[in-house]
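Table S2 (continued). Query chain:
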Amino acid sequence: MSGQNPSSERRGEGRNLAVALACGVLVGAMTGAAFAAVPLYNWFCRTTGFGGTPQVAASAPGEVLARKILVRFDANVSGGLPWRFEPEINSIEVQVGETVTVNYTVTNLSARATVGQASYNVSPPTVGAYFTKVNCFCFTDQRLKAGESREMPVVFYIDPQLVKDSDQDSLNTITLSYTMYPVRQQEPPHAERVVAPGRT
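Corresponding output:
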């Protein structure tokens, strides 16, 4: 009975080590991709307007065109958030390139402070690349005291580049939709009990 060649054993161990290393690198890459998927998807949507995600700009375009489009406003509240949330107007006709400010009102109907965050999109989804926000309450969490009401503005415009897109030639209505979701609040640390001198 002949023994195994030591050199072939070393080659086999080397192959096993290479396979194990490759598997480890693959698992690490897949884990990293999973963590990066959500921020990358959000960045992609904000950049391209995919799925009706509006764009964000620091200032208005400086060009107002004659074409007008009706913008409708929609407001929803997710379960678990005791708020009343609605736009001050249901719709407004705006010129392409015109900067417009519209207020939404929100009221905390509960007897305790609550926090909400708005998600948003526009429809039809293909117009997301041209609907641009300059300022919006949806950029930050909203904290309301018990019974508090607040006006919250959104400042937006429709990018004049829209008129160069032949797919938007028949567009006459855009709907801006918000949904408020509850934000879980961190529990405040429990205060330590202070014992008066001479007492236990």
